[in-house]
Structures are given as C-alpha cells and as structure tokens.
Amino acid sequence: MSVEGVPEVPPLSRQVTQEGIRRYAEASGDFNSIHVDEEYARATPFGGTIAHGMLVLAHLSEMMAAAFGLDWLAGGRLKVRFRAPARPGDTLTARAEPRRARQVDGERVFEYGIECSNQRGEALISGTAEVVVGRSR
Questions:
Q1: Sign of torsion, CA 114 116 119 121?
Q2: Nearest by Cα to 85 from 113, 49, 40, 114
Q3: Which residues, at least 6 apart from 10, have a Cβ–Cβ distance to it below 8 Å?
Q4: In the chain, what are the domain boundaries?
C-alpha cells in the first residue's frame, strides 16, 4: 500500500539458526535455557529452543536502518507486541506498511505498521515504527 509522502521500505528476510541464537546469548548475556539448552527446551511447552525476542525485534530495526540510515538511529521508535516465538530454521521476514506522514515541531515524521513473520505467515511481532527524518543532518 502506498501512502502519499511516505517512502516504501523494502522487506528484510533472515533465517534463524541455533548458532545465531547462541551468538546473541553471548552478546546479550541472556543464557536462559529456553534459548540455549536444546535438551531442556525440548521438555518445555515450546518443544525446543526459541530465539530471544529482542533478536527477532532486531530484524525490524535492521530493516528500518537499511531504509533510513542515520535518521533511524537518531529518531526511530518502535512500539511492538510479541505474538509468537521464532525457532531455529524459521525464515523471518520483516515488513513495513506506510501509514502516514506528519509534521512535529517542524520535522517530518513517517509512521509505519510493522510486522515480523515466519515462513508460514505467522506474525511473531507486530506494531508501529516512527522515524523523524532530517534530524541526523
């Protein structure tokens, strides 16, 4: 869907791997067994390990940073709801649907509906993204 004055954001797809989950655990310090201990995780209602929610959320931020660069880093905001877990082997696709453009204190703000889904089309995270453009200059 195209909304006048709001640029399109190309989708981003990445595959979740257990190695990527392990590396995220090392970077974040979050070694919860549901993420890193496959034997433990098999005995849970999840039936196996799941990715950290913030690792999945990072795909949405990466997509917005690819589209807006420093503007995203200087003036990007996400408001999301976590809906379902991502598992090793899942292919995640982050998408942004333009919603509106507006002026706030003389700056342009673009708003998007965002979603990160798996290869089955199940929404894992959904919400909104806003970016203030021109602030980083």
A1: negative
A2: 49
A3: 63, 66, 67
A4: 12-16+50-133
Q: What is the pTM of this model?
A: 0.91
The C-alpha atoms of residue 59 and residue 71 are separated, in whole angstroms, by: 17
Taking all residues of the chain, what is their mean pLDDT, rounded to a whole number? 95
Q: Is the pLDDT of residue 26 over 80?
A: yes
Sheet with 12-15, edge to edge strand ranges? 12-15, 91-104, 107-117, 123-133, 76-82
The predicted-structure confidence for 71-127, as pLDDT tens digits, reads as follows 999 989 999 999 999 999 999 999 999 999 999 888 999 999 999 999 999 999 999
| Fold assignment, 12-16+50-133 | Thiol Ester Dehydrase; Chain A (3.10.129)
> Are 60 and 93 contacting, i.e. CB atoms less than 8 angstroms apart?
no
Whether the CB-CB separation of 125 and 83 falls below 8 Å is answered with yes
Q: What are phi and psi of 131, to 5 degrees?
A: -135, 135
Query: Are the CB atoms for 96 and 64 separated by under 8 Å?
Result: yes
Contact 121, 84 (CB under 8 A): no
